[in-house]
Design a protein that fits this description.
With 158 residues, this protein is mainly α. It has helices at 3-28, 30-33, 37-51, 74-90, 101-120, 127-153; strands at 64-65, 68-69. A hairpin with a 2-residue loop joins strand 1 (64-65) and strand 2 (68-69). The longest helix is centred in the C-terminal third of the chain and has 27 residues, at 127-153. The protein is flat, with a radius of gyration of 18 Å.
Length: 158
């Protein structure tokens, strides 16, 4: 594979990944976006159960807009939004990053500490703190996933 085809393949993979994450994120807030009650009556229970496989969906830990709750908690919303932001950035710019476990643990640490401190009662759960630590973690995890997919589908074929 020449360099031009290599770059094109990477861009296609990144665009497909961006679209998948975008659809996932739109699904999370779809009950906010869909104003038709008849459609919502059909889709909401299905989507709630679907997203319930990846999130606890505790109401007190979930963002809402105009009384419509997101289908995942604030932390999960942050994780997926972080992945969406970095998938968008990756379409235009992707610096060479040395991926190792230290970076992963660095990204995981604030989120893990937030969970631990809230769990032991050091402070009460704070949606925006959970959201922020989720964005940071989701951003870094996206970079790992992208690197793994590019390595598997593109780089190994060169």
């Amino acid at each position: 594979m020449n360099n031009k085809n290599f770059s094109k393949a990477k861009l296609i993979l990144r665009f497909v990944l961006f679209l998948l994450i975008l659809v996932w994120c739109l699904g999370i807030i779809s009950n906010v976006l869909i104003s038709n009650q008849a459609v919502s009556a059909i889709t909401n229970p299905i989507l709630k159960k679907f997203y319930g496989t990846v999130c606890h969906q505790i109401d007190a830990k979930t963002f809402s807009i105009n009384g419509h709750k997101f289908f995942v908690c604030a932390r999960c919303t942050g994780i997926y939004l972080g992945a969406l932001i970095f998938s968008t950035i990756s379409l235009f710019y992707y610096p060479k990053i040395n991926l190792n476990r230290k970076l992963f643990y660095l990204a995981l640490s604030p989120m893990a500490l937030d969970v631990l401190f809230a769990w032991i009662g050091l402070y009460n759960y704070i949606k925006f703190l959970a959201f922020g630590t989720g964005i940071f973690f989701g951003s870094i995890v996206f970079i790992y996933i992208l690197a793994a997919l590019e390595n598997y589908f593109i780089t190994r074929n060169v």
